[in-house]
Design brief:
Elements lengths: L2 H5 L12 E11 L3 H12 L4 E4 L16 E2 L12 H11 L6 H21 L34 E2 L5 H12 L2 E3 L2 E11 L2 E11 L5 E11 L28 H8 L4 E2 L5 E2 L26 E2 L8 E2 L39 E2 L2 H6 L7 E2 L6 H7 L3 H4 L4 H10 L9 E2 L15 E2 L6 E2 L12 E3 L10 H20 L9 H12 L12 H15 L6 H18 L8 H26 L24 E8 L2 E8 L6 H8 L1 H8 L5
Parallel strand pairs: 1-2, 1-8, 2-5, 8-18
Antiparallel strand pairs: 3-4, 6-7, 7-8, 9-17, 10-16, 11-14, 12-13, 14-15, 19-20
Helix pairs in contact: 2-5, 2-11, 3-4, 4-11, 6-15, 13-14, 13-15, 14-15
Length: 657
C-alpha cells in the first residue's frame, strides 16, 4: 500500500467534537444564500451586530451559488410598464389564491432596489459593454436587458454568476461575522407566560465537529426548501438536481421541532428534475422554457413547430413570441408554468397532443440557428451559462465538444420542456411550494424569529429571495435595536442537542447504517404512501413506517467524520420534513387542483368550504391545525405602506436602504 493510499482516509481537520463555543450577536442569520446574505446586510446597515451561519461557503453556496439568469418582477425599474400591485396580484391569482401575497408584493416593490444594491457590490446587472446593443430585449439608454415580455420589461436578464462573490465581499466590508462550513441544527426558544420567543440557535462545524451555541436578540431563517424527500438514488446524484444536493429543508425541520407554523406542505408537483439521476442536467437539453424561452423548436423532419399567443393565434415572427396578445396587458412568463391562468399565459408552442394530432413527428429539437443572431447569442452564452449549473457542465462542456448553435440542434426529451418523464408518485417541492406561515413583518409565530426566501410558503425565485431577505433583516434589526438584553434559554437544550448531533460517531459500527440507506428508505416510503394519490389509510401507514425508521434505523446510523455526520443530520431533517408533509396531507379533507393534491377518500375538487390555508404545527408531540383565509394579508399596497413608511421615505430621498 502506498503512502498516498494509507493517508487517503485521514481526516484533514482538527477533532473538536467534544468542544463547545458560545457566540452572541444582535441578529443571527441562518443560511448564506441570497436571502441570508441580504438579511445580514440589512441588519448590519442598521448598526446591529450580525452572525451569519452557512453550511457551505457563502461565496458559492445556495441555489444561486452557481448562478442564475433572470430576475423576476423588477417592477420599479425605469423601463417597466407595470406596477408592483399589478404583478403581485397576478402571481396570487395565477395560483388560484394559494399563494403568498406578502412575499410577492415585497418582491415586486423592493426587488429592483436590491438589484441596484447588487450592482453597487460588484454584481453585473446590465450590458455595460454593449454586446447586445440594438437588440429588442435591450434598453440602450440604461443597458438593462429583459426576458419574456419585451413590451412591459419587468423581468431582467442578469449575470447571476457574479452575485454571490460580490455579496461575500460586502458582508466582509460591513463586518458581518460569517461562519462558513457550519450547519445550523436547532433553534433556541425562550418561553415566558405562554409566549415563545427566539433566543438564537445551535449548530456544528462540519469540518471539526465543534458544537456552537448562538445567542441573539433576533433570528432570521434563510435556509432552503426541502428536497430528496421522494427522489433519491445514492449512486446517481449531482447534476440532475436543479438545486444543490445539500439544500434539503433543514430550516423547515428546525422550525417544526420548535413549534413553528407551516402551510401548503401538502402541495407537491410531479418531478421535473431528479436527485435520483432520472433526468438530464437542467437546461442541458433543447426546450422552450425559462432559460431557453422562446427558442425555435422543430420536429424530426426539421419542420418548425408553431408558437401561438394567449388567444391561440399562430405567431409569424420570433419577436411576436415576446409580446402580449392584443388586449392582454402583460404576461408573467412564456413556456410552462404551474397551472397557467389564461390571462397571464405568454406565447408558447401548441400543446403536445395537438402537435401529434397535426402530424408533427418526434423527437423535437431546439434549433437556435433559425433565430435572429442576438436572440441566439442571448440564449446560448448568457442565459445558458448563467443559470443554475449550466456554466460549466452545459455551456463550457458542450462548446468544448464542438456544439455550435449556428449549426447544431439540441434534442428535447419528455413531452415538452422537461428533461425526462416521471411517474405520478415521483414528487418534488417545485413551483410555489409550502413553507413557513408568517405575518407582514415576515415574523413567524415564534416572536423574534423571521423567515425569508425559500423558507417562506409559496416561495419564488432569486429576486424574491433577495427582497424578502433584506426585508426580514430590516425588521429583525429593528426588533433587536429595541431590546436591552439577550433572551434566556434552557442550558439543558444545548446539552441534549450536542448529544443528539454527535451520537452517530459512537454508534455500533458493526451493525451500522449509512445516511444513504435511510435517505433511500424515506424516499421509497414517501412514493408508496404519499405519492400522486393519497388517502387516510396510506398516510397513516406512512407515518407509522417513518416512526419505525426513527426507532429502528436512526439509532444505527454511523459516521466516521464530521462530513458524514452532517449528511446524517440532513437525512434526519428529511425524515422530519416527510412527517410534516404526511400530517399536512391528513389535515386537508378534499382534493385541490392548485395544490396538485389528490385524495381518493376525498375526491371533491376544491370545494368552497375548503378554499383556505391549513396552518399546521406541533406542540409537545401533538399536531395542531387551524384555518387561515387565502387572502389573510389584506390589500397589498395598503398593508405594505402602513408598515414601511421609513423605508419608503428613505427611497424617496435616494438612500436606497
Amino acid at each position: 500500500m502506498t503512502e498516498m493510499q494509507e493517508n487517503r482516509y485521514i481526516w484533514p481537520y482538527a477533532n473538536e467534537s467534544g468542544q463547545r463555543e458560545t457566540l452572541s450577536c444582535d441578529v443571527l442569520v441562518l443560511g448564506g444564500g441570497l436571502a441570508g446574505c441580504f438579511a445580514a446586510i440589512a441588519a448590519a446597515r442598521a448598526g446591529q451586530s450580525v452572525i451569519l451561519v452557512e453550511k457551505g461557503a457563502v461565496e458559492k453556496s445556495g441555489s444561486a451559488g452557481t448562478g442564475f439568469d433572470h430576475w423576476e418582477s423588477a417592477c420599479t425599474n425605469p423601463c417597466s410598464k407595470v406596477t408592483p400591485e399589478e404583478i403581485a396580484w397576478a402571481y396570487v391569482r395565477e395560483q388560484d389564491g394559494y399563494s403568498n401575497g406578502i412575499l410577492h408584493y415585497i418582491e415586486c416593490r423592493e426587488g429592483y432596489d436590491r438589484l441596484l444594491d447588487m450592482e453597487s457590490f460588484g454584481g453585473k446587472i446590465r450590458d455595460t459593454e454593449g454586446e447586445f446593443k440594438g437588440a429588442a430585449f435591450r434598453d440602450d439608454e440604461t443597458g438593462l436587458m429583459f426576458a419574456y415580455d419585451y413590451t412591459n420589461r419587468f423581468t431582467l436578464r442578469v449575470w447571476g454568476t457574479t452575485f454571490k462573490p460580490a455579496l461575500r465581499k460586502e458582508l466582509t466590508r460591513l463586518g458581518v461575522k460569517v461562519l462558513d462550513r457550519t450547519e445550523a441544527t436547532a433553534l433556541l426558544v425562550e418561553e415566558r407566560a405562554g409566549v415563545r420567543r427566539g433566543a438564537g440557535a445551535m449548530g456544528m462545524d462540519v469540518h471539526t465537529g465543534k458544537f456552537y451555541v448562538f445567542r441573539s436578540k433576533s433570528t432570521v431563517l434563510c435556509m432552503s426548501r426541502p428536497a430528496r424527500v421522494w427522489l433519491f438514488n445514492p449512486d446517481t446524484v449531482g447534476l440532475c438536481e436543479f438545486r444543490p444536493m445539500q439544500s434539503i429543508g433543514s430550516g423547515h425541520a428546525m422550525g417544526w421541532r420548535a413549534g413553528m407554523e407551516f402551510t401548503m406542505m401538502e402541495k407537491s408537483v410531479r418531478a421535473e428534475f431528479s436527485a435520483a439521476g432520472r433526468s438530464f442536467p437542467p437546461y442541458g437539453t433543447g426546450n422552450n422554457h425559462n432559460t431557453w424561452y422562446a427558442a425555435t423548436m422543430v420536429d424530426a423532419r426539421g419542420v418548425e413547430i408553431p408558437y401561438v399567443d394567449r388567444d391561440g393565434n399562430e405567431l409569424k415572427t420570433v419577436d411576436e413570441r415576446y409580446r402580449p396578445a392584443p388586449g392582454q396587458k402583460f404576461f408573467l412568463k412564456g413556456g410552462v408554468i404551474d397551472d397557467p391562468k389564461y390571462e397571464y399565459r405568454g406565447p408558447e408552442t401548441l400543446p403536445f397532443d395537438e402537435l401529434i394530432r397535426r402530424g408533427y413527428q418526434l423527437p423535437f429539437y431546439a434549433d437556435l440557428s433559425r433565430m435572429p443572431e442576438e436572440e441566439r447569442r442571448v440564449i446560448w452564452g448568457m442565459m445558458v451559462g448563467q443559470e443554475a449549473k449550466t456554466q460549466v457542465p452545459i455551456y463550457q462542456n458542450y462548446t468544448r465538444r464542438g456544439f455550435d448553435p449556428e449549426k447544431h440542434m439540441l434534442q428535447g426529451y419528455g413531452t415538452g420542456w422537461q428533461s425526462a418523464n416521471f411517474l405520478e408518485q415521483e414528487r418534488q417541492f417545485f413551483g410555489a411550494p409550502g413553507g413557513i406561515l408568517h405575518d407582514w413583518d415576515l415574523m413567524t409565530n415564534i416572536e423574534g424569529v423571521y423567515a425569508a426566501g425559500d423558507q417562506l410558503f409559496a416561495s419564488d425565485c432569486a429576486g424574491a429571495a433577495c427582497a424578502t431577505g433584506y426585508y426580514a433583516g430590516r425588521k429583525a434589526a429593528a426588533r433587536a435595536g429595541g431590546m436591552a438584553q439577550l433572551p434566556d434559554f434552557e442550558p439543558g437544550d444545548a446539552d441534549r442537542e450536542q448529544t443528539r448531533l454527535l451520537a452517530p460517531l459512537y454508534a455500533d459500527k458493526a451493525n451500522g447504517l449509512s445516511w444513504k440507506e435511510l435517505n433511500a428508505a424515506i424516499a421509497k416510503a414517501m412514493q408508496n404512501y404519499c405519492g400522486g394519490v393519497r388517502c387516510e389509510a396510506l398516510l397513516k401507514e406512512g407515518l407509522d413506517l417513518l416512526k419505525r425508521f426513527e426507532e429502528e434505523m436512526v439509532p444505527r446510523l454511523t459516521a466516521d467524520n464530521p462530513h458524514d455526520l452532517m449528511r446524517i443530520h440532513e437525512v434526519l431533517d428529511i425524515l422530519t420534513v416527510s412527517q410534516i408533509v404526511l400530517h399536512a396531507s391528513l389535515a386537508r379533507h378534499s382534493s385541490s387542483a392548485p395544490l396538485f393534491f389528490r385524495r381518493s377518500d376525498y375526491p371533491e375538487m376544491d370545494p368552497e368550504a375548503d378554499r383556505h390555508h391549513i396552518a399546521i404545527r406541533q406542540e409537545n408531540g401533538k399536531v395542531l391545525t387551524r384555518d387561515v383565509p387565502l387572502d389573510y394579508f389584506g390589500d397589498l399596497q395598503t398593508e405594505y405602506e402602513a408598515r414601511n413608511g421609513d423605508y419608503i421615505e428613505r427611497q424617496k430621498g435616494g438612500d436606497g436602504r
